[in-house]
Amino acid sequence: MLGKFVHYRHNLKDFVEQFFRCLYQVRAREAHSDMVSAVGNLVLQSPLHALERSTASVLTRKIFLLFRPTLSRACTLKVMGRTYTPSCAIYTVSQSSTSLKEWQLSLYEKLIVFKWSCLRMESLGILCAHR
What we know:
Layout (H helix, E strand, L loop, with lengths): L11 H28 L9 H10 L2 H14 L3 E7 L4 E6 L7 E7 L4 E4 L3 H5 L7
Antiparallel strand pairs: 1-2, 2-3, 3-4
């Protein structure tokens, strides 16, 4: 790489100037690569790509990286049943069909609100993965 900047005809002063120019270019490329890796597109990991992409655009990168494992775990929950009421739809979910633990998710479509029976989302603001 240094060969692009330094030639045998350069004196010591020109060599040092060209060397620092080369060094600046290397550092600028590294900084650009770091920036692209920090703010570039994330690899989507959950089966709900649209939801994950939307969340990544709303949350900060650091918070999203904390949120993503919870989303992936929540995607493994199984819907065991559903009940409709005039105000909401209630889904019963479980980790597996043989699990004894079940939770209810109430979805209020008109209000665009959902509530878990464990109240974790309401109390902590964290999505439930129930693991």
